[in-house]
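Feature request, filed as a ticket because there's no other form

It would be nice if the structure record came with a short human-readable summary line next to the tokens. Right now we just get the raw output. Example of a typical job, pasted below so the devs can see what we mean:
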Amino acid sequence: QVQLVESGGGLVQAGGSLRLSCADSGRTFSSRPMGWFRQAPGKERELVAAISWSGGSTSYADSVKGRFTISRDNAQNTVYLQMNDLKPEDTAVYYCAAKEAGRYAYWGRGTQVTVSS
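Raw output as currently delivered:
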């Protein structure tokens, strides 16, 4: 069973950094592509970054390229999102998700990131 728990959110000033973590208590983490999404108030949920099961392939939304880095540690069943040079428009609830059969099927409960100007 996949159970995802995010941590690492908080309040940071513009230009600052945060590192989000997402731990999976299940046994299939290392075989699953993973993604980080975010949802700001009044906006749709968007895919921020994605990573293949091995970590060898990553992709990013244009809005975060060069500032955010997704990585994973399969030995620790954890995926990370390093966020640098944060901007007020990065304020959102951030969710991690795991793929199954080509779709994001499992979701964490989210962690709030607030960037003050």
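Something like this underneath would help us a lot:
The first strand starts at residue 4 and ends at 7.
The radius of gyration is 13 Å.
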